[in-house]
Amino acid sequence: MLGIKTPVSAKGIVLVLIFILLIALLINKNGQSLMRFMVGQEVNLKTANFDQYQSEHYDIRYTSIDEPYIKLIAGVAEEAYDSVSYMFGLKPAGRTIIVVYPDSSSLSQSFGWDKDANAMGVYWAGSIRIL
């Protein structure tokens, strides 16, 4: 038979369980930043062919059908940024990505939702996705 058969000791099982627990705690501690990074990479891949507009605090990605609305979206986003930053006395570190989808179907698809799920916009792990 393949492999070496040795009895597994209780001490060995405890060590493996402690190792798994330590890994889980490390992942949990850094989980939010890891999740943001992963979602950010997903957004970059899925919007690689989108046009991009940069305002002072936002990178706005959009398709050509939404081009007439991008400066309006940027202006409203900057006003909201100023209001919320003033209200909380804090400013976010770095730029925020806003992705503008042309229809609810493509917005839903970006999350893997059912095509019948509707939302005007969603914030998820550091990016804002809107219709």
Question: How does this structure look, described?
Answer:
With 131 residues, this protein is α/β, with parallel strands linked by helices. It has 3 helices and 5 strands. The protein has a 5-stranded mixed β-sheet with strand order 1-2-3-5-4, sandwiched between helices. 9% of the residues are buried. The mean pLDDT is 83.
Concise synopsis of the structure shown:
By secondary structure, the chain is of the alpha/beta class.
Question: Can you tag this structure with a few keywords?
Answer:
Glutaredoxin; about 130 residues; elongated; about 50% helix; 5 strands; alpha/beta; 3 helices
* Percent in helix: 40-55%
| Named CATH architecture | 3-Layer(aba) Sandwich
Strand order of the largest sheet: 1-2-3-5-4
Estimated structural class? alpha/beta
N- to C-terminal distance: 61 Å
CATH superfamily: Collagenase ColT, N-terminal domain
CATH fold label: Glutaredoxin
SSE string, helices as H and strands as E: HEEHEHEE
Roughly how many Å is the radius of gyration?
22 Å
Arithmetic mean of pLDDT: 83
Uncertain parts:
none
Total separate domains: 1
Shape: elongated
How many individual β-strands?
5
Helix and strand arrangement:
Layout lengths: L9 H37 L4 E4 L3 E5 L7 H19 L7 E5 L3 H8 L9 E4 L2 E4 L1
